[in-house]
Design goal:
3-dehydroquinate dehydratase activity, alpha/beta, globular, 147 residues, 3-dehydroquinate dehydratase, 18% strand, DHquinase_II_sf
Length: 147
Amino acid sequence: MTDILLLNGPNLGILGDREPEIYGSDTLADIVTAVSDEVADAGWKVIAIQDESEAELIRALHAHRYSTAGAIVNPGALMIAGWSLRDALASYPPPWIEVHLSNVWAREQFRHQSVTAALAQGAVVGLGAFGYRLAARSLLHLLGSDR
């Protein structure tokens, strides 16, 4: 398998316009390109999916659970109460990294708990769009493809 899943949850499709003082000016397309560039030398391709619906994100995880080597997941606000997404992630066999553009622990109290992060092999928070590149590097390392 040489594909990785890049899964982005609600409101991440409007990055670049959405509260740039918090989330930065990079668009989701910029992030997809950056992650694709990061894994290209290893011969990997990115399957990028963003949806506003938890159900569609779950369908994507189920559809790609055996065809991808790993995933980078930004569940967005679903990290707080996305129990169905959490269960789908628990059933996703390959390793995955959780990413958040902002430092969720430096923000509102309700963002301080993630129902999904404990299932991830690691988490990158607060580093903006660059965090996705770090997650891609981490995933390649976990999969032994960072040589």
